[in-house]
Amino acid sequence: FPEVGSMVVRGDRLYVAVQQLDRDNGWVADGGRVVQVDCEARVATQDWDVGPNPTISPLYDDDAKLLVQTGVYFAADGGLSVLDVGTGELSAPFVLEADLGLDIMYAAVAPGDRGGVLVTASLSPPTVYGVGCFRLGDGAVTVAETLPAFVAGLAMDDRGRAWVSFQAPPWGSADAEAGIARYDAATCVREVGFSSFVLDPGSVAFY
Fold this sequence. Notes:
The chain is mainly β. It is 2% helix and 53% strand. It has one helix at residues 97-100, and strands at residues 3-10, 13-22, 28-38, 43-49, 55-58, 65-69, 79-84, 89-90, 95-96, 103-109, 115-121, 129-135, 141-147, 150-156, 161-167, 179-184, 189-195. Strands 5, 6, 7, 8 and 9 form a 5-stranded antiparallel sheet that branches. A 4-stranded antiparallel sheet has the order 1-2-3-4, with no helix packed on it. A 4-stranded antiparallel sheet has the order 10-11-12-13. The protein is globular. The protein starts with a strand and ends in a 12-residue tail after the last strand.
């Protein structure tokens, strides 16, 4: 029973990240695919095997490519790669969780210099979350800061600014601060402090 992890629209095509989790065996990953859907005909036209538990996000400067993030939660088994939906070629991972010693929770590419922002989590409790930046060319990762708050989402706008949602659930750290903070992908610096809401924020989307 595959589950949809994320979706990206490019022109008249919809790309769906399908997570294949074995729910009878502790929800371990049993592969994962990206499926191309013809929106007008409402049929799947292509699919690619991309690795365990994938999510996808767009590359602003290239409609033919998607950023693919793989790996199950709290295990150093995945990484970041690029899928060319025109050729069907999946690049070798340019950022690996095993090299970081961290779990990549979210990742998004900024327009312009082809860099991006990622959110990580420590592999063992107590969980510490981090916000950092990466480069597509060589996979270099820079850490902006670490925080005790639970990270609920990451969204990149068309100006190269990443909006990260933090939550402070009752089971989390006592000093966690909830809200949305904004990071600049080029400098890897938090530009705007926490904007608070009545309820802890979840996902953010731009349209």
